[in-house]
């Protein structure tokens, strides 16, 4: 999955570069649609949603994913640190690609929110997608009640943040696709490293944890 995402991202980046950053036909079509369908209430709601994909919120959620994934206090700290490292390093790598490709954003006259910097791949999209992947993994590892609903909601949030960037006119749709592919490829690489160096986080709760057996009795009697 990670290799397929990486190949897809490389192909899309190559197309964008070969076209000197000019929009693909689908980019122009979707931007035109977005500009023509922007009631004030929808724009306000979309701005609030898009803001959850930047600044501190994703990092708080990434740390939370680590806390959920770990069983002991030590594991929770290690998992939170690993999650934050995955998100932060992914951002640095994305910025390197961003400046390397140097694609211009859509015309500023079409924007419905503030934006700055180059366009491909979308930063909000990448950040939200990596964060969503971390949270989904943590939830699936711990298997809490209602996990499938939680996974669905988190996944929808990760996708929706990317779509807001097109609706608000600050990114081409191919920037968003690039963000999703980049996030998936990077997350897969982080997952491989984590499985190698922090294997206790990828085993069931009753295995690999010397404290698990001791914890089971008091929980049963509580």
Can you summarize this structure?
The chain is mostly helical and 222 residues long. The protein is built from nine helices and no strands. The model is unreliable at 204-222 (pLDDT under 50).
Characterise the protein shown here.
The protein contains nine helices and no strands. The protein has 222 residues and is mainly α. The longest helix has 29 residues. Helix 3 crosses helix 7, helix 4 packs parallel to helix 6 and helix 5 runs antiparallel to helix 8. The N and C termini lie far apart (43 Å).
Outline the fold blueprint:
Elements: H1 2-18, H2 25-36, H3 40-51, H4 56-69, H5 73-101, H6 123-142, H7 147-167, H8 173-197, H9 212-221
Features:
single chain; 222 residues; mainly alpha; disordered C terminus
What fraction of the residues are assigned to beta strands by DSSP?
under 5%
Largest sheet: none
Number of helices: 9
Distance between the termini: 43 Å
Shape by Cα distribution: globular
Strands, count: 0
**Rg, alpha carbons:** 19 Å
Question: What structural class should be given to the helix and strand makeup?
Answer: mainly alpha
Low-confidence stretches: 204-222
């Amino acid at each position: 999955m990670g290799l397929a995402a990486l190949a897809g991202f490389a192909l899309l980046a190559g197309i964008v570069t070969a076209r000197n950053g000019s929009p693909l036909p689908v980019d122009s079509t979707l931007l035109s649609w977005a500009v023509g369908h922007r009631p004030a209430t929808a724009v306000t709601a979309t701005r609030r949603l898009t803001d959850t994909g930047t600044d501190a919120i994703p990092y708080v959620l990434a740390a939370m994913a680590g806390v959920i994934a770990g069983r002991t206090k030590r594991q929770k700290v290690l998992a939170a640190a690993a999650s934050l490292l995955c998100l932060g390093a992914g951002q640095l790598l994305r910025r390197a690609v961003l400046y390397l490709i140097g694609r211009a954003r859509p015309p500023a006259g079409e924007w419905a929110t503030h934006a700055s910097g180059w366009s491909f791949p979308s930063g909000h999209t990448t950040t939200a997608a990596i964060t969503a992947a971390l949270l989904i993994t943590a939830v699936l590892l711990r298997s809490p009640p209602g996990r499938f609903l939680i996974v669905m909601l988190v996944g929808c949030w990760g996708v929706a943040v990317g779509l807001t960037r097109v609706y608000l006119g600050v990114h081409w749709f191919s920037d968003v696709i690039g963000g999703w592919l980049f996030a998936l490829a990077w997350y897969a690489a982080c997952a491989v490293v984590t499985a190698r160096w922090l294997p206790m986080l990828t085993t069931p709760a009753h295995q690999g944890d010397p404290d698990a057996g001791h914890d089971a009795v008091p929980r049963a009697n509580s």
